[in-house]
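Much of what follows relies on a compact textual record of a protein's fold. The record below shows the convention in full:
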Amino acid sequence: MAGTVVLAYHFEYSDTFPVHFQGFFCYDNTLAKPYPGPEDSSRAPPVLVYSLVTAVPTITILVGELAAFFFQPTRHKEKTIISGECCYFNPLLRRMIRFLGVYSFGLFTTTIFANAGQVVTGNQTPHFLSVCQPNYTVLGCQPPPGTIYITDKAACTGNPLLVTAACKAFPSKDAALSAYAVAYTMYVTLVFQLKGSRLAKPSLCLALLGPAFLVGVVRVAEYRNHWSDVLAGFLTGGAIAIFLVSVLCLRLFKGGKRAGLLSQHSDTFKTILGRRSFLGLPCVDSSLDKLSVAQVRDIPDAPLHNSSSSSVYSLI
């Protein structure tokens, strides 16, 4: 987490990674849109987007976990989780910390991926020529179709800061963060089991998707990004959220048991080891399945005969 935060900081607020200057064609209409003003003057300013991306998922996760804990009887039956031999954690607190920790990690990861794409590609925004202000006469540019390709960054006579910002369009970071927040927050549709209403979950999904889609529309309407930049941002943020959900949090979303934790009770022992292997291959029945963990530990070493070998394979 610390390394992710540091890397995101260097991408965002330092010159450690210089932005690639891609070049442009003279009189390119796709880059000649009017300058929409600073980001803070947008109808979806970064402060608003970042606040919603941070606050809405956090509040949703907290409310969802609290509601699931108090309204689902099975949650009250969970035992306190022991970490090592000294620390005790409430299951509700542990789940919320895990969800919020993974979400924060993914949020910084999405920022890194979006900034890395912008730095490497150097794609220009639709208003690039308005802030670049190239001198076409000095550059020898002719009206279309006699245009030439300019690769020298010194051709831009405008504000260098605005020119650099106008070279960071692909993918759209605001769209990536919005898509990530929406995809990750949809976990509540997997946790809640609502009865009597089939429109509750679809309505919740649309309520989450609506603001993210509007952020992309505003970015395009104000000539701050192309449609391709917004779509790439949506794909980037959504892919990271799906990866984190499927790899780290899927069992928690479904309220399933945590794999790999051996309990001292024989029921949990049989649940984890089971009568089927992790690859789905059938195993031979064994009398060891009826033993507790303590009894298994007391079994002395013995040569493997036919019967014992089948027992070993059933354990594996």
Q: What stands out?
A: The first strand starts at residue 24 and ends at 25.
